[in-house]
Design brief:
Blueprint: E1 15-17, E2 23-25, H1 26-30, E3 38-43, E4 46-50, E5 57-61, E6 66-69, H2 75-86, E7 93-97, H3 107-110, E8 121-123, H4 127-137, H5 139-149, E9 188-189, E10 194-198, E11 201-207, E12 216-220, E13 225-228, H6 249-262, E14 266-269, E15 275-276, H7 278-304, H8 309-315, H9 320-323, H10 335-347, H11 362-372, H12 376-388, H13 392-405, H14 410-427, H15 431-444, H16 460-465, H17 469-472, H18 475-478, E16 489-496, E17 500-507, E18 510-515, E19 526-531, H19 532-539, H20 545-550, E20 554-558, H21 560-567
Parallel strand pairs: 6-7, 7-8, 8-9, 13-14, 16-19
Antiparallel strand pairs: 1-2, 3-4, 4-5, 5-6, 10-11, 11-12, 12-13, 14-15, 16-17, 17-18, 19-20
Helix pairs in contact: 6-7, 7-10, 8-10, 11-13, 12-13, 12-14, 13-14, 14-15
Length: about 575
């Protein structure tokens, strides 16, 4: 496909102004119509709540109470869900079920602390492992990029606002509440193909990949209803710009084929409005799974033909029968992103051009390109000429070189790039693309700072719900390599209530963690002793290490540099 036909390179696009002033692609604006706040009755005794946040919550009426599936991204959202769901069936909670580890942070709304342990909480056996990765090792990275992806640095109103998030109306409504998380850990785990009864309702659980490998597909045979985390109201996000583990399309197909095998009358998704009618569900799922297979098969075909990721991203396009599918629009991510991810997931990042193995640095490249163009003034003039033709993608690239060249016209190149990114954001059909482009544009203009995350998921209550090793493991990434520059060091970290001991060996710039206290005779360079509650307050940023030491909640001795690095007092 000729790049000039792209909306990012000047192709005509129907752009409209939304109700809150957002300047957007018309098809993207229309996609928002399904996300109104409502508890949809799907079948007898089954309701799906849409519109309080990115992820839906489903409620099933049991004999004595209600079973709730997924609870939003924070307590404030789950309060809205609960309010609307209780209006249609006001019974006490009899069980919680998690489809995967993403929409679980409002569960404390349904299950207060004093009720914990009295109500079963069902989940995939790998969910806690995945959560430990998301909110442990990669927490700073993930939270920073989640904020960008979901437009949390963008204004609520005006041209740069977000009409919706592609899969739901919003991630957080930062203008209405400060999100607080309340997670309740699972008490029961599912097995693949497991059949059970929860409060008089028959459930069957299947382990099927979605955007995580801890996803549970739920089958309610009595109402012939499927609850799933694979079929979304937009093309499945094989790759998300925030960064995630490889979502293998082959695994995704198995779950969608299971849905077709079950022949449901009703389809409930973690995102989007429910679909009812056996034929309607089958058609939507068939289009959806064929889209995923098409992306995978055509990418593999191109790899075998010797094409590079760039060549494949520029040439693979869906056939019309899939482009116009009920759930296959590019309203969340975009097809080229997914093609590149399949390529990388299957064979790695290298295409075929060996010039990319050791490219010149970005700054060196910029100096050389600007010089070839005849100098900075000539290069700026050419960039502005491209901007007049709405060749946004080319202008953004040229402006990047202009910025890296770092000449006297730097400020003009910064604004030129911001304008080009904003232009691409206004013509895209995809929420992720819009959020990233607009956020970077506004950051270039000095309107936001993405190094500062405007929300936090980690709080003391969250820390207490996770295995103690979750945040101890985080010390591998936070302790500076210089601590072991002059030789091996040993730290003994002890928690009380509950009792847990960890030995941290600092050597060669790495931190090796093992369970248990140091072996007898080991030279211990530092010791830190605290209750697990104090650790939770420290990690959840409710109290500083200095304050905890002053109050006696933390006792530390030995190497001051190590102690200071762990407690944040260095």
């Amino acid at each position: 496909m000729n790049a000039t036909l792209s909306p990012y390179m000047g192709a005509p696009v129907d752009v409209v102004t939304g109700a809150r002033g957002a300047v957007v692609n018309a098809s993207f604006a229309k996609h928002a119509e399904q996300f109104g706040r409502k508890a949809h009755q799907v079948a007898e005794g089954v309701w799906c709540h849409v519109g309080a946040c990115l992820g839906n919550s489903t409620m099933i009426e049991g004999k004595t109470g209600v079973i709730v599936v997924d609870t939003g991204d924070c307590i404030e959202q789950s309060v809205m869900q609960k309010e609307d769901l209780m209006a249609v069936c006001n019974k006490p909670l009899s069980a919680l079920v998690y489809t995967h580890g993403h929409y679980v942070f409002g569960s404390r709304t349904w299950l207060p602390l004093e009720q914990e342990g009295k109500v079963p909480v069902w989940a995939h056996p790998d969910m806690m492992r995945n959560m430990s990765r998301m909110i442990g090792d990669l927490s700073p990275f993930m939270m920073r990029r989640v904020a960008i992806q979901f437009g949390l640095h963008l204004p609520v109103d005006g041209p740069d606002s977000m009409p919706h998030m592609g899969l739901g109306p919003f991630f957080y409504e930062m203008d209405k509440y400060k999100p607080t998380t309340g997670f309740v850990r699972p008490t029961h785990t599912t097995t693949d193909g497991m059949a059970t009864e929860i409060d008089g309702v028959k459930f069957e659980f299947f382990h099927t990949w979605g955007d995580t490998d801890d996803t549970v597909l739920i089958w309610l045979p009595e109402t012939r209803t499927v609850i799933n985390n694979i079929a979304w109201p937009a093309m499945f996000n094989i790759y998300t710009l925030r960064g995630e583990l490889f979502r293998n399309p082959i695994e995704l197909l198995r779950g969608l084929d299971k849905i077709l095998e079950l022949q449901p009358e009703h389809l409930i998704g973690v995102h989007g409005v429910p679909i009812s009618g056996r034929e309607e569900v089958a058609k939507a799922i068939t289009e959806y799974r064929d889209t995923i297979q098409y992306i995978y098969d055509q990418t593999i075909r191109g790899i075998n033909a010797g094409l590079s990721p760039d060549e494949l991203a520029q040439t693979i396009r869906l056939p019309a029968s899939l482009t116009n599918g009920r759930l296959t629009g590019e309203h969340y991510g975009e097809l080229p992103f997914h093609v590149r991810q399949v390529y990388a997931g299957m064979v790695g990042w290298f295409g075929k051009d060996t010039a990319k193995l050791h490219p010149v640095t970005g700054t060196d490249e910029a100096h050389r390109i600007v010089a070839l163009a005849g100098g900075e003034d000539a290069f700026l003039m050419a960039s502005r000429a491209a901007a007049d033709k709405r060749e946004f993608a080319w202008v953004a690239q040229m402006a990047t070189w202009g910025m890296q060249n770092a000449g006297p016209r730097l400020a003009e190149f910064r604004q030129l790039k911001a304008d080009a990114l904003r232009g691409m954001a206004q013509v895209t059909t995809a929420a992720n693309t819009r959020s990233w482009y607009l956020t970077q544009a506004r950051e270039l203009e000095g309107h936001c700072n993405t190094d500062v995350t405007p929300f936090k998921i980690i709080n003391p209550a969250m820390v207490k719900q996770m295995p103690p090793i979750t945040y101890v493991n985080g010390l591998r990434f936070s302790l500076p390599a210089s601590l072991s520059a002059d030789g091996i060091k040993v730290l003994h970290l002890h928690f009380s209530q509950p009792d847990n001991d960890y030995t941290l060996v600092l050597r060669n710039g790495v931190v090796v963690i093992s369970n248990g206290a140091p072996a007898a005779g080991t030279q211990v360079d530092a010791t830190i002793d605290m209750s697990f509650d104090a650790w939770a307050r420290l990690i959840g940023r409710e109290a500083s290490g200095r304050d905890l030491q002053a109050s006696g909640d933390v006792k530390a001795s030995g190497n001051k540099a190590i102690v200071g690095a762990v407690l944040g007092t260095a």
